[in-house]
Amino acid sequence: MSFFKKIFTKEKKETLDKGLEKTKTSFFDKMSKAVAGKSKVDDDVLDNLEEVLVTSDVGVKTTLKVITRIEERVARDKYVGTDELNKILREEIAGLLSETNVGNATDFEIPSGTKPHVIMVVGVNGVGKTTTIGKLAYQFKKQGLKVVLGAGDTFRAAAIDQLQVWADRVDVPIVKQSMGSDPASVAFDALESGVTRGADVIIIDTAGRLHNKVNLMNELTKVKRVMQKVIGDAPHDVLLVLDGSTGQNAFEQAKQFTAATEVTSLAVTKLDGTAKGGVVIGISDQFQIPVKYIGVGEGIEDLQVFNKIEFVDSFFK
């Protein structure tokens, strides 16, 4: 039995395999063309492989790292056949992800010693932010944890309503105010409510407008400062949600938000509907921030903890 099978259920594995199907099919179609008519990994094959990785949204910097690793391996081994390329590529990408020290978790968990554990969720509109919050609440509750939601995106009535739908679906309490209210005030009330209720986890939504960095920074800084009036070291996690189907645009959003606030973890959503799943590899490598969760389907169970062993196994299966 493989290490992977020991720590992940068959259902989770099948969901991930299915979620990455479009990415995998696109990638290996390109790979087969890159090595067509070649028996040996030479400069032409490496040039073609570089194009495959870049067009699969792995990102230029990460692609160059991977190509350099394979060049070194080819030079060391003297002869590497194209039939070995998939195996080598898999090993080098797994090695690259291992160096980032991310993606080791096997289940939804929160650090011990921070109760309540406060998660502030950021990201632009449309990336699946509210859905991710709802699915997180479901997973934490399934672990037996008490969860409270805070509807801090007060600039859109739809955002408050959508979070209320998720709160009802998961059966967890929600703290909200009317549209146009001060987001920091909502966060303050949510933390007070969470403390009173003995919550284990408090998840705070925030506005999804990607306005200029100064305003964004000021707004998020204010929310954090007000939170700290209730819980001194809150938030314990600033989770940035990115839409994997946007490919390189997800990199740009990550740059914008990491410049505006101290992001501590990432969630990459909508991987099931796209061939751009390679973006997870690039984002894991380029940002010194762990990818904590990935979305591989629309179902409530289809938000998964990101595990590099699991991901690489499904990507190259």
Automatic annotation (TrEMBL):
It is a peripheral membrane protein. InterPro entries: AAA+_ATPase, P-loop_NTPase, Signal_recog_particl_SRP54_hlx, SR_rcpt_FtsY, SRP/SRP_N, SRP54_GTPase_dom, SRP54_N_sf. GO terms for biological process: SRP-dependent cotranslational protein targeting to membrane. GO terms for molecular function: GTP binding; GTPase activity; signal recognition particle binding. It catalyses: GTP + H2O = GDP + phosphate + H(+). Residues 290-303 form the SRP54-type proteins GTP-binding domain. The keyword Cytoplasm applies. SMART domains: AAA, SRP54, SRP54_N. GO terms for cellular component: cytoplasm; plasma membrane. It is found in: Cell membrane; Cytoplasm. Its EC number is 3.6.5.4. The lineage of its organism: Bacteria, Pseudomonadati, Bacteroidota, Flavobacteriia, Flavobacteriales. It comes from Dokdonia sinensis. GTP binds at residues 123-130, 205-209, 269-272. Involved in targeting and insertion of nascent membrane proteins into the cytoplasmic membrane. Acts as a receptor for the complex formed by the signal recognition particle (SRP) and the ribosome-nascent chain (RNC). Belongs to the GTP-binding SRP family. FtsY subfamily. This is Signal recognition particle receptor FtsY. Part of the signal recognition particle protein translocation system, which is composed of SRP and FtsY.
